[in-house]
Each structure stands twice: as C-alpha cells, then as structure tokens.
Amino acid sequence: MKKRKMILAVAEWLLLVLLLAGGAWNYLRIQNRVEQVSKMVDMSDSKLVLYEGPKSLKDATPEDLKPASETARDFTLKHCVDTKVSVNGYDCYVYDTNVNHNRVWFGDYLPPQSRTPITYFDFEGIARIVVTVPDMALDSVKISPVSYGIEPVIDQVNHTVSFTVTQPDNYTLTFNASPSRALHIFANPLELNAPKAGDENVVYIGPGEWNIDAIMLEDNQTLYLAGGAVVHGIIQSNYGMNIKVMGRGILDGSTFTGWQGKNALVPLKFDFCDKVTIEDIIVLNPNAWVCSANTSSNGTIDGLRIISSRPNGDGITLQSCQNYLVQNCFVRSWDDSLVIKNYTGDSKNITFRNNQLWTDLAQSMEIGYETNKGKKENARISGISFENITVLNNFHKPVISVHNADDALITDVVFQNIIVENAQMGSGDGDEIPYLIDFNIAQSSNWSSTKERGQIRKVTIDGVKVLSGRFNPSRIHGFDASHTVEDITIRNLEILGERITSFEQGKFEIDETSTKDLTIE
Fold this sequence. Notes:
Layout: H1 2-40, E1 47-50, E2 78-79, E3 84-87, E4 90-92, E5 94-99, E6 114-124, E7 127-132, E8 141-144, E9 153-155, E10 160-165, E11 169-175, E12 183-188, E13 202-205, E14 208-216, E15 222-225, E16 229-238, E17 241-247, E18 250-252, E19 268-271, E20 274-279, E21 282-284, E22 291-294, E23 297-302, E24 305-307, E25 316-319, E26 322-327, E27 330-334, E28 338-341, E29 347-361, E30 365-367, E31 380-394, E32 400-404, E33 409-420, E34 437-441, E35 455-466, E36 474-477, E37 485-495, E38 498-500, E39 508-510, E40 515-520
C-alpha cells in the first residue's frame, strides 16, 4: 500500500511538473504571438486624418430611413446615427446618403429610395476599424473587395465588426448578405501638397455646408473641396483647358429636384475641354448623370467616388472623348456605371482601370447604344479598355456590354481581369437582357440616330471570374449578314468555379448568320 502511495505521489509530482512546463511553454508561445501581433498592429508608424462633417446636417431619423420617393420624405444628406465607425480608437463622422434598391424603371421618375451610410478618412500604415450597428443582428459580414481576404471579427453581443486594413482603398461592408444599409468606407492615402486658400488660380472651399448652385471653371483653375466640406451644387466648364477638381470633400445634389425627364443638373460636366483632371472627391445624390464629358480630350479621372440613386443616374459617361484615363474610382449607380458613346465625333484611346463598381440598375461596363448620335461619316469607337475592374454587385443588366444601335464601327476593345463578386443580372425588369456578356447590333426606337447599322470588330475578353450569384447566359448577335460581330476572342472565363472552354458550356446565345470568327479558350 505504501509503495502504491509512493508511486501515486511521484506520478502526481511528474504531472505537476509537466503541467508547469506546458504552461510555461504556452505562456512563452502566447507571449511570442502577442509580440508578433503587436508588431503587426503597432500604431506608432501609422498616421490618420479624420474629417468632421458639417454640424448643420441633421441626424437621420428612423422615418428618414424608410423607403420613399424624393417627394414623400426629406431627401437631403444626413448625419448617420445608427452606424458608428471608429479608426484606431477615434470616432469617424458617418453620412447617410440615398440609394435605390429597385430593379425596375419608374415612368414617373419617382422610385422609392432608401439610405445607406458612408464615411471617409486618410491614413498611412495601419487602420484598425471598428463598426458598431446597435440595431442590427449580425449573422455575417462580407468585406469587399474580397480579393483582400479580410476576415472580420464579429461580436454579436455588442453588435460590432472589427478588422484591419493596410492599403488605402474603397471598402464595402455588406451585412447579413443583404444590400440594405451596406457601409461604404473610402479610406484615402494621405493628402500631399494640397492647395491652400489664397493660392493663385485656386477656388478653395473649406469645411462646412455650402449652397453654391453652379461653379463654372475657367482655364488653368483648380477647384479644391476640403475634407469636411459638403457643397450642394454642380461644377462645369465648356471649352476649358488645364482645369482640376480635387479634394476630400463631398459634392451633393440632394437639394435639387430629380430631373424627371426635364432638367438634368450634372454635378461634374466638362464639354469641349482639354486636360481636365478630377481627383478624389465624393459625389452623392445627383439629380441625373454624375460625371460627364462630351468631345473632350486628354482627361484624367482618378479616385472619384460616386453614389447615385435617381433615374438616369449614370456614373462616368464619356461621349466622343479621346485620350482619357479613369482609374481608382468607386461607382455605385442607378443606371450604367461606366459608359462610352459617340455624340459629335469619335471615341478613342480610353482606359478604365482599377475601378470598383456596384450597379443597382442597368449595366456595369457599356459601349453604346448611341454610337453616332451626330451622324458623322465613318464614325468609330476604338482603343477602349477595361482593366482590373471589380464589380461588387450587378443586379439588373449585363456586366459587359458592347452595343451598337447606329452605323459606327466599334473596334479594338479589351476587357481584362474582371471580377464579379455577386452576379444577379436579370433581377426586376432586367430579365429583358439578363446576360453576363452582351455583344449586340440593334435598331432601337430609343437609341438609333442613323438609318444604317454598324459593325463590331476585334473585341478581346481575357479573364472574367464570377464568384457568386447566377450562372446567366451571354449573347453575341449582329444585325444581319452585312452588319456583323466579328473577331471576338474570349479566354480565361470562370463562372461559379467552372472554367468555361466552349460557347455551349458558357450558355452563349449566338446568331450564326451575323457573327464570324468567334473564339473561346
């Protein structure tokens, strides 16, 4: 018995030693991990700039958040109070802007509209973001672009979502797999060499809320909207040269009545201009189109953020423009997001790259339908490229469209590295053209200006990946044997994890009599 007790005592002693050793090892391991984590999230080398919103903006009430037409409730920009955002422990001002979840056209131009929160800040290094939604049960949260692989930490008890970003970009949080009350975070790089009030040829608008119906810019002028500024108005120039619009502020159209087919007040409109640059500002609540240029050249649109909700709320539309670069933009639109058309002359050498799109209605990337509205002889649209585009959501019509409703030649077009996070084409009345990809030559009572039809030639699609949603068909149709779609190459097409290597597999609807030299690989 004594021997047995001695054995048990030794065993207990050995167990205690093992536990202590294991505990010490775990302690060292945890300490090592804590040191690693502290290095990863060390804020000492990070910089953060926050912008307080105008105190004159009213808090959004529950009544303001109910879906209603712009004539049935207060449509103005609000201060959001049901979604709180902190960055590195500091509170960030959140706005409440209008969005449109309807997937059908309203003939009276008065669809019921909802609201969604947005915020913005500048940083360098690391931004630790905490989002609090006290009134929302959190089952899931998706952070887009999903290519970053950000895995949020969800605290269902305290209704918080926590995550870290190290790259300035536009981030969207979708809660519980619903577009409702999605949060848009515009995380800017630090602003360098910003203009100052009093600088030569600078129109400076500082923080606060401003009602300035129209700002007409002249040659060599820079308009600067400072962070924290909300300007209710529009910015335009005709026949201007060397013009720049920049800053961190907001250009808001919520005080204007929707155009309703009568009077479009385009927030950013530059016609017959040369060397116009638009950088970084945010445009909300336009009364129709958002950013438009007609017969302009050598332009740059960089870092523009757009959310439109009213009918004909096209995002960035370039008509008869040449030598344009559109990059690093975020466009959420209630009509086509990125658009090329011919109004007076040809469109040539236009590049869209590194842009994020959320298309609530219509198409994400559209060439046409109006390809020769000015009835120019031998009209062309050529040298157009869409590169590194992420479509967060497409709810209505095609993601990729090349449409020709006039007699122009569309040629040398490239779509490369297109990611579609959520494909829902065909929702609502989008079932008329519910395609992923659509090449079509048509005669339209709405869009055609010429009697004859045109051609589509040399279009390359290289790298389209649909991550979730619907496996919708695609279409390649010419008009007849004389007005055709030819020399089309599609490669690296992946839909819902399936690599597409044949037109049949990809559900392509092809008109054999009006198409030629089609390749998929």
